[in-house]
């Protein structure tokens, strides 16, 4: 395993980070989820990312149980707050002081830990003053419940405003967690330059574009049984933007490139995001332990400039690059 510094901090994390968005507490049984976590530990992954909203807290609980007994100082545990949780009452959502202070305690209890290494704003809350949000995060840090603060799917302007307030409050905003893959490059023009300037790095989710870049979905063919695109528990909705025949055809053009490098298409996709020097880690989930063992082989892979050019040519105009997509995909009203 390779390790990278997270932002302008002294914290190192594994460049392949285990995430449990659509798996723990929902897609796979708890014993299989635990086997996946054990497999991650066995191959050298030390960083684990979750959120209170995943399976309404169940994902945190499964992860906490799976990591029980491990040396806490040898792990980096990340979680997030924003989306509706618990009984989904009128204050069980957003980035108000009330929701943040109550949510961190719930997350720590489910994760069976005294602190998280990184506490992240899962989205930007347009209904709560940013000053209130950042002050609450600062208090969480000062209480020792989180070591660092991060954000997810914030625009460059929102990151700038948050980073300035964090500095004024004496805490470190060190990370951004956006979607990023060969097919979805919307962070490159604005979020990444702002992050470099401010001392944040990216922890990217969906480096395989919800599994599309694995090559298992073929244009004009039925969906593979048990695949994410066929999942009615949330996976199908997240993957739909990539399930067009032109995209699926372009993705198949990547297979000769992966074969030439003796990589699977999934490994090529993960290695690609790690070529960006502002990316600290690629978030990778798994529904089987063998997926973990396969994905980790992308760590430390270097892709030459010629290979990167071949990838761009293979995908052509199906790549989404518009930086406005970050704001366009943000919640337009507070979720209920």
From TrEMBL:
Keyword hit for Oxidoreductase: yes
Domain of life: Bacteria
Domain NADP-dependent oxidoreductase residues, every copy: 15-314
UniProtKB keywords: NADP, Oxidoreductase
Signal peptide segment: none
Matches recorded under CDD domains: Aldo_ket_red_shaker-like (cd19074)
Cross-referenced InterPro entries: AKR, K_chnl_volt-dep_bsu_KCNAB-rel, NAD(P)_OxRdtase_dom_sf, NADP_OxRdtase_dom
A GO CC term assigned to this protein in UniProt: cytosol
GO molecular function: oxidoreductase activity
Pfam families on file: Aldo_ket_red
Entry similarity comment: Belongs to the shaker potassium channel beta subunit family.
Protein name: Aldo/keto reductase
């Amino acid at each position: 395993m390779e390790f990278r510094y997270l932002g302008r901090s002294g914290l190192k994390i594994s460049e392949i980070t285990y995430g449990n968005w659509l798996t723990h507490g929902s897609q796979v049984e708890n014993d299989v989820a635990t086997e996946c976590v054990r497999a991650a530990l066995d191959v050298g992954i030390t960083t684990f990312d979750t959120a209170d909203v995943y399976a309404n807290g169940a994902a945190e609980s499964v992860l906490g149980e799976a990591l029980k007994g491990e040396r806490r100082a040898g792990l980096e545990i990340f979680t997030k707050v924003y989306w509706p949780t618990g009984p989904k009452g009128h204050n069980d959502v957003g980035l108000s002081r009330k929701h943040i202070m109550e949510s961190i305690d719930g997350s720590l209890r489910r994760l069976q830990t005294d602190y998280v290494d990184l506490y992240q704003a899962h989205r930007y809350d347009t209904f709560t003053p940013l000053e209130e949000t950042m002050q609450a995060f600062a208090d969480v840090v000062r209480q020792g419940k989180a070591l660092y603060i991060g954000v997810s799917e914030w625009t460059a302007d929102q990151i700038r405003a948050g980073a300035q307030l964090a500095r004024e409050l004496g805490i470190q905003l060190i990370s951004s967690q956006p979607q990023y893959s060969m097919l979805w490059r919307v962070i490159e023009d604005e979020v990444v330059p702002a992050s470099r300037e401010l001392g944040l790095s990216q922890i990217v989710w969906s480096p395989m574009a919800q599994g599309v870049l694995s090559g298992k979905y073929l244009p004009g063919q039925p969906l593979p049984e048990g695949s994410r695109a066929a999942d009615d528990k949330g996976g199908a909705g997240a993957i739909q933007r990539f399930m067009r025949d032109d995209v699926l055809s372009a993705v198949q053009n990547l297979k000769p490139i992966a074969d030439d490098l003796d990589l699977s298409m999934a490994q090529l996709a993960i290695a690609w995001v790690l070529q960006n020097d502002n990316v600290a880690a690629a978030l990778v989930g798994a529904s089987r332990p063998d997926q973990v063992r396969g994905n980790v082989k992308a760590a430390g892979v270097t892709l030459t400039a010629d290979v990167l050019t071949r990838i761009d040519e293979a995908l052509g105009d199906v790549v989404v690059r518009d930086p406005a997509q970050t704001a366009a995909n943000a919640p337009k009203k507070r979720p209920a």
